[in-house]
Task: inverse folding
C-alpha cells in the first residue's frame, strides 16, 4: 500500500511537471533568460506548488505520524553553509546549460527521449562521483578516529 | 526586460504546479517522506534495505507519467537545444551539485519553501541566480 501511494505521488508529480511546461527545456531556459524574451510561466509552477504545499506541510508538521503510522521524516538541518550554497550554484549552472533539472529529466527519460537519457546517465554519474569522493575523504578520517 | 507573451502559459503552469504540490503533500502525509527527486534518486544509488521500495515506486511513477498523459491524448513536445557534450556536462554538474547542496528544484524549491525553511530559501535563491547567470552568459555574452 505504501508503495502504491509512493507510485501515485510520483505519477501525479510527473503529470504536473509535463502539464506545467517543466519538461520542455526551451521553456525552462526562457524562464531563466531574464535579459532576453522572458517567459515567467515557471514562477506560476512554483507558486501553485508552494501554495498547496504551505497548507499540506503545515498540516504534516503538526502530526506525529504519517497516515500509515510511520514516522514523518522532515529535515532538521538549519545550517546555511558553503556546501548548501556552493552545491546549489553548481546545480544551477548545470540547470542553466541544458534546461533540465532531475525531475523533468527523469520524466522525459520515461517518454523515451534520447537526449534526456544522456542527461540522466551523466546525472547519475555525477551522484556516484560525489559519493565516491565523500567516501575517499571521510573514510580515512573515520578510521583514524576509531581505536583499532 | 521583455515578456515572451507567445510562450507564456500562466494557467497550465499554475495547474501543473498545483498537481506537483498535491503530489509532494501526498508523499509526506502517506509515506512521511520529502519529495526531493535528487535525494530520492541519490538514495537508490546507495541503497539501505527497506528504503529502496518507496523510492523505486516514486521514480516508477515519474517514468510512467508520459504514458498516462498519452492516454489522456496529451503529447509532449519538448524542445531540447543542448547537444551531446552540453548534456553530459550539465548532467554531471546537476548530479554533483544536488548531492553537495542536498537538494534540487523539488526538495528545496517546492518542499523546502512550503516548509518555510530558510535553508531551502537560500538554496533556491542560489540555484535560480546561478541558472539565470548561466543563461545570460551563454545567450548574451558568448
Result:
Amino acid at each position: 500500500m505504501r508503495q502504491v501511494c509512493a507510485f501515485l505521488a510520483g505519477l501525479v508529480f510527473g503529470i504536473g511537471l509535463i502539464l506545467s511546461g517543466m519538461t520542455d527545456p526551451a521553456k525552462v531556459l526562457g524562464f531563466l533568460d531574464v535579459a532576453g524574451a522572458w517567459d515567467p510561466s515557471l514562477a506560476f509552477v512554483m507558486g501553485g506548488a508552494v501554495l498547496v504545499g504551505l497548507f499540506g506541510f503545515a498540516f504534516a508538521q503538526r502530526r506525529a505520524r504519517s497516515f500509515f503510522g510511520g514516522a514523518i521524516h522532515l529535515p532538521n538541518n538549519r545550517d546555511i553553509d558553503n556546501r548548501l550554497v556552493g552545491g546549489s550554484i553548481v546545480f544551477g549552472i548545470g540547470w542553466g546549460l541544458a534546461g533540465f533539472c532531475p525531475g523533468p529529466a527523469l520524466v522525459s527519460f520515461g517518454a523515451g527521449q534520447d537526449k534526456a537519457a544522456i542527461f540522466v546517465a551523466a546525472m547519475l554519474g555525477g551522484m556516484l562521483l560525489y559519493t565516491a569522493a565523500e567516501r575517499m575523504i571521510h573514510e580515512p578520517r573515520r578510521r583514524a578516529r576509531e581505536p583499532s | 526586460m521583455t515578456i515572451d507573451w507567445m510562450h507564456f502559459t500562466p494557467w497550465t503552469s499554475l495547474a501543473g504546479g498545483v498537481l506537483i504540490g498535491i503530489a509532494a503533500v501526498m508523499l509526506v502525509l502517506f509515506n512521511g517522506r520529502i519529495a526531493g527527486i535528487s535525494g530520492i534518486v541519490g538514495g537508490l544509488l546507495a541503497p539501505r534495505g527497506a528504503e529502496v521500495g518507496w523510492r523505486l515506486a516514486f521514480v516508477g511513477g515519474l517514468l510512467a507519467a508520459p504514458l498516462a498523459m498519452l492516454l489522456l491524448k496529451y503529447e509532449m513536445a519538448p524542445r531540447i537545444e543542448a547537444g551531446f557534450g552540453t548534456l553530459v556536462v550539465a548532467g554531471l554538474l546537476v548530479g554533483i551539485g544536488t548531492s553537495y547542496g542536498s537538494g534540487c528544484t523539488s526538495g528545496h524549491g517546492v518542499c523546502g519553501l512550503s516548509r518555510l525553511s530558510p535553508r531551502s530559501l537560500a538554496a533556491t535563491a542560489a540555484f535560480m541566480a546561478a541558472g539565470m547567470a548561466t543563461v545570460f552568459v551563454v545567450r548574451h555574452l558568448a
